[in-house]
Amino acid sequence: MSFLFQAYPLARQALFALDAEAAHETTLHALQKAYDCSLTRGMMHSRVSDPATLMGLPLLNRVGLAAGLDKNGAHIDAMGNLGFGFIEVGTVTPRGQPGNPKPRMFRIPQAQALINRLGFNNLGLETFLANVARSTWRSKGGIVGLNIGKNADTPIEQAASDYLLGLAGVYPHADYITVNISSPNTKNLRALQGEHELDQLLSQLQQRRLELTEQHGRRVPLAVKIAPDLNEEQIDIIAQVLPRHGIDGVIATNTTLERSAVQGMNHADEAGGLSGAPLHARSLEVIARLRQRVGAELAIIGVGGIVTGQHAAEKIAAGADAVQVYTGLIYRGPALVGECVKAMAAARG
Predict the structure, then answer these.
(1) Residue 183 known to be catalytic
(2) Which of the four, 236, 299, 324, 349, has the lowest number of CB atoms within 10 Å?
(3) CATH 3.30.1380.10 for domain 3-347
């Protein structure tokens, strides 16, 4: 393990003294600086190999970076250098937008959790694509997923137009594309998970993908990211709708509005989505239910509450094909990536 990975617990003390969003930006800036310097780039490099296939794509290992950490796709190479098998960036919206008012990100350390209400803050599709095009990680065997959403001021009835713009824009640059319909921080967005709404949206996206496949000479897999706050009937409906439209994968799950696991703790009542350790158990339930309903037909990426390698192995045991981490990185640092790869490999024997 590199010295920089071992030093993270010390760095975390300083970072946790900052506002959560300021710490987030400081960390990304520091990682980028370390990557840009050839000496420190080698010190932070990590690669644990456990080859796998996901949605037809060859992975270096089964641990990915969840969307949301690098919203503008500006740090793909630096994040890839930490040992991830795949990187997902975004969520990007057609037009840049500031997101919700600050403060909008809050740590709950005693629960290894985070609440955010960022609201798809990003610089827009044009800047996002320029950043992705500059990155070199794909040329080194890395897999990059691009996550698309709708602008906050686009009426929900016209949401498809934003997703279609996003799809066409990211298509030439993506190894796979994620349709984010499950953030709790964009008004009415989760309504798109309803059967009729989802059916209509995916029908239009699939039609556009067929056109883009012909235009670009390659078929890019599509995944849908869903919320943990769905009941069993809603999960079953989604499991029926996704295969109907040729969707290749499902990412389970986004952040939760549930607060019982952090009740009474500082910041627990802040509005937004809760991520981190309290989400793990619910994410497992959603993954298991999905796998029961879809069989082997869809790839499932398990995300939510992975703070240890054991958590990652439990996601695979529940039915996931691969996992993604985000909040766990904040609490554990980049050593978590290799720990998860090794735990999943050991669990498979």
Answers:
(1) yes
(2) 349
(3) no
